[in-house]
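Homework help board

Subject: predicted structure for assignment chain

Our instructor gave us this sequence and asked us to write out the predicted structure in token form, then describe one feature. I got the tokens but I'm not sure how to describe them. Can anyone check?
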Amino acid sequence: MINHQNISNLFNFLKKNRNLRNISLNITKKGLQKAKNNLKSDIVIKNNSIIFNVKINSILRQSCEILLPIIQKKDRNFIGQIGQSLDAKIALNNGNSHYINEKESITYLHCLRSISDGILVGVNTIIKDNPLLTTRKIKGQNPTRLVIDPSLKLTNKYKIFKDKNTNIVFTYSNKKKNLNNTKIVKLPKKNFTLGIYKFLKKSSLKYILIEGGPTTLSYFIELKLINYLQFIISPTLIGSGIDSVKLKPITNLNKAIRRPSNFAKLGKEIVATLDFNS
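My token output:
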């Protein structure tokens, strides 16, 4: 049986063996074990598809189907992700966003976090939402939390500084602060976002999840610093609110960003994945 307690073991195996396109696995007391290639094994991977011959709920199965091609593609990925309404809003004008997406998408998000070595957000996400940024919905290793805080506004009152998980804060401020469990990385103000990208490319963190907000995500899109961009789209119309991306205006549709895409069902919602690798 695959459940919230052991799904991360499968993701870790896939990351370590991403070049294997045809493999069969059995679930044992010692963990996942390679089996003879046959369709009766507990888990069968053929190219970029995955077949389960054991019990698994539909959201975890769909999460695996969505994430497998991403894991297989490259050993280092920058993945942008944002949840939105059908009319591309992430919150009301008053900032209320709980909850635009269904609870099933939260499970998927935590699966995505579990394959990630680092999770990147802007300082406004921390100030407005005060998130934990952990994989608490499934049993898995928490990613290093990465926060872009140009003016070094953050203090130890926020949740990310109240546990033992690791944080890295990027800034160009000259302020001196002591933030719990945190490494503060000062970078030049010029080309600040590019500097963060270069720092992370040289680090041991291979899978970086860019979780927002829209300003942070848009910087990485415009600078072409992401490999994948995912929208979890709720069948909800809001009308007015905060847009999911904040790209610079264009005057010619030839300048619109058009990438190979894939659409997958996730419960009542749709996950749209844009591939920026080519």
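Reply (TA_rk): Your tokens look well-formed. For the description, you could write something like this. The chain has two domains: 1-56, 76-275. That's the kind of observation they're looking for.
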